[in-house]
């Protein structure tokens, strides 16, 4: 892998990293003020910065061996908006050399949020920005909205900025209140990349957000977080009814998981996947196949797709000490380009 010095011929002035995340429960609820339950994963994105005394940013991805040049104040194309969005929102008015290297797989594990948080952490170090970890996460969300074109919620950036790998992080995405929650006793987390790529800005993500916003309007509530009786969504027209049913049910599943043992937690994950597959229609046939193989394994308590969907990764809660063996068993029968990510 090329280093910053290899590419630019000088040492960086700031370097920072941030983890990817996997969400155990609470999918597609964070843009409706709901509850989410992510944890950080070991894989990270590292960003290094250095001034270049020019009027352009030189952006290098060590993963793709690609270098982009973008004039200061502009956005650029390809992977550039994730970086230039951070630079522009942080008021950077000088050219920077930027080196990026990441081990977070794309698709469901928040590689983009990891990139944004790492970039903002490096900028905070370089310029002494007064950004706490929550404000930093919210700036990452602004980057997605204003520069990338994905109307995401706050979960991914909050998890990348604040979560660790030892606990789950319960986040109330309306108030941003949060607390660490232990994993169910006797269980561990397994994450498998399905091998099916996806691109959120080209998927139905923004469409789903518009649908649940319309459902909220028709129900007369600020957000579906405010619907306590799930039967109320049955008054909505088709499609909006199904989308709202998922969000309301998913919020209830997160809250139920806080008191659940491993088997009960697994059943909630299974129900979540069924809802994402049916009511929210954001899964993929290969993802469903991988989830079914996991759910059928005797050492798996439950499994579901994770992330926005349309491909990407799956997460399973498995018997403690059995994650690697479960992954080997399941991947041998999967027949696609899947691979174990965690542990």
From TrEMBL:
<dbReference type="Pfam" id="PF00288">
    <property type="entry name" value="GHMP_kinases_N"/>
</dbReference>
<keyword id="KW-0418">Kinase</keyword>
<dbReference type="Pfam" id="PF10509">
    <property type="entry name" value="GalKase_gal_bdg"/>
</dbReference>
<dbReference type="InterPro" id="IPR014721">
    <property type="entry name" value="Ribsml_uS5_D2-typ_fold_subgr"/>
</dbReference>
<comment type="similarity">
    <text>Belongs to the GHMP kinase family. GalK subfamily.</text>
</comment>
<dbReference type="GO" id="GO:0004335">
    <property type="term" value="F:galactokinase activity"/>
</dbReference>
<keyword id="KW-0067">ATP-binding</keyword>
<feature type="domain" description="GHMP kinase C-terminal">
    <location>
        <begin position="257"/>
        <end position="330"/>
    </location>
</feature>
<dbReference type="GO" id="GO:0005829">
    <property type="term" value="C:cytosol"/>
</dbReference>
<dbReference type="InterPro" id="IPR006206">
    <property type="entry name" value="Mevalonate/galactokinase"/>
</dbReference>
<dbReference type="InterPro" id="IPR006204">
    <property type="entry name" value="GHMP_kinase_N_dom"/>
</dbReference>
<keyword id="KW-0479">Metal-binding</keyword>
<dbReference type="InterPro" id="IPR013750">
    <property type="entry name" value="GHMP_kinase_C_dom"/>
</dbReference>
<dbReference type="InterPro" id="IPR000705">
    <property type="entry name" value="Galactokinase"/>
</dbReference>
<protein>
    <recommendedName>
        <fullName>Galactokinase</fullName>
        <ecNumber>2.7.1.6</ecNumber>
    </recommendedName>
</protein>
<feature type="domain" description="Galactokinase N-terminal">
    <location>
        <begin position="3"/>
        <end position="49"/>
    </location>
</feature>
<keyword id="KW-0547">Nucleotide-binding</keyword>
<feature type="domain" description="GHMP kinase N-terminal">
    <location>
        <begin position="91"/>
        <end position="162"/>
    </location>
</feature>
<dbReference type="InterPro" id="IPR019539">
    <property type="entry name" value="GalKase_N"/>
</dbReference>
<dbReference type="Pfam" id="PF08544">
    <property type="entry name" value="GHMP_kinases_C"/>
</dbReference>
<dbReference type="InterPro" id="IPR036554">
    <property type="entry name" value="GHMP_kinase_C_sf"/>
</dbReference>
<dbReference type="GO" id="GO:0006012">
    <property type="term" value="P:galactose metabolic process"/>
</dbReference>
<dbReference type="GO" id="GO:0005524">
    <property type="term" value="F:ATP binding"/>
</dbReference>
<dbReference type="GO" id="GO:0046872">
    <property type="term" value="F:metal ion binding"/>
</dbReference>
<keyword id="KW-0119">Carbohydrate metabolism</keyword>
<keyword id="KW-0808">Transferase</keyword>
<keyword id="KW-0460">Magnesium</keyword>
<keyword id="KW-0299">Galactose metabolism</keyword>
<dbReference type="InterPro" id="IPR020568">
    <property type="entry name" value="Ribosomal_Su5_D2-typ_SF"/>
</dbReference>
<dbReference type="InterPro" id="IPR006203">
    <property type="entry name" value="GHMP_knse_ATP-bd_CS"/>
</dbReference>
